[in-house]
Amino acid sequence: MEQFFLQKLIQSNSLLTDVIMILFQLVIEMKSTGKYIYLCIPIAVLISTFVVWLIRIIVKNINNEYEFGIGFTIGSLCSFFTTFIAVILLFSLQFTNPVVKVVVKGWAVALMNNSEWRDKTFRDAYENVAELKNNAGRQLENFSGYPHPDQGGNTIPTTSEKAQLVATNTYLVAAENNFNKTMPFLSWILTAKSGTAESDILNDMKKHFATRQSSYLVEDVYKIAGDRISKELLEQSGRIKIIGSIIFFSIWLLVQFVIVGFISWAALRNIKEKF
Question: Which candidate, 22, 48, 226, places its Cα nearest to that of 6?
Fold first, then answer.
């Protein structure tokens, strides 16, 4: 079940789907701890019951003779269940770190296996490097023996530091954009930055060319890029607890205002009808 939600999350570009799948992941993670979920449920019931009792007190202060009919019952049930869900979700935010770790690692693996993304990014990197010129206005890198990807080419000449930097940045920007596109909700909270990826890739290239004359493997670029971006995202996971708490509480508060407003209106209307 957890794998199903994870796959849906990674494959979806929908903000709503992102939110729902992440919430399911949080609750599943909380449930996996065993005793914690059984502690949360009675607390959620008690808080929900207290909120309903508080609404009852508010209505009675408005109209002491108000008879609690079907409208109050429906409003109370809505208040109870929304409070119950809000409390459970707030508790589940304590498991943000393991959930974000699973989601981000899942995204990184999916990115590495995304042949369409790999082919497009490789083509972009190839063409960006091919456009580089030296002081004489000639092509900076020697592309003899390096056919275009559309002609079956699978390597890029990157012997110069400038070519290495351009190829690296192409992959880093593509990886960052992919996260922002495939994870719209998380990308709103987290910032997909490459961190030390650029310097790590350049150092890896230098080590490669210092010992071998063969072309640097493109696979090494996106593996390092995905790994470093994943690391940067995980370090920001604490933001989800803060922003998530604010969002849950704000939505819950808005719902309660609507419910109290509706029941209060009914109580005031009842007073006018008696007069």
Answer: 22
Residue 133: phi and psi, rounded to 5, are: -125, 150
The DSSP call for residue 149 is G
Q: One digit per residue, pLDDT tens: the chain, 275 residues?
A: 455 545 555 555 565 666 667 777 777 777 776 677 778 888 989 999 999 898 888 877 776 766 667 777 888 899 899 999 888 888 888 877 777 777 777 777 777 778 888 888 888 888 888 888 887 778 888 888 888 888 887 788 877 878 878 887 888 788 878 887 877 777 777 666 655 555 666 666 666 556 555 555 556 666 676 677 777 777 777 777 888 888 888 989 999 899 888 877 777 766 555 55
Terminal CA-to-CA distance of the chain, rounded, Å?
A: 59
Distance between CA atoms of 235 and 275, rounded to whole angstroms?
Answer: 63
Query: Quick count: other Cβ atoms within 10 Å of Cβ 133?
Result: 9
10 Å CB burial of residue 230 (0-12, 13-18, 19+) is buried
Q: Which helix (H) or strand (E) holds 270?
A: helix 238-274
Residue in 26, 80, 1 with CA at minimum distance from that of residue 259: 80
- CA angle at residue 246 from 75 to 104, to 5 degrees? 120
In DSSP terms, 139 is beta-bridged to 133
Q: Which of 261, 246, 77, 103 is nearest to 183 (CA)?
A: 103
Q: In whole angstroms, what is the distance from residue 229 CA to residue 179 CA? A: 9
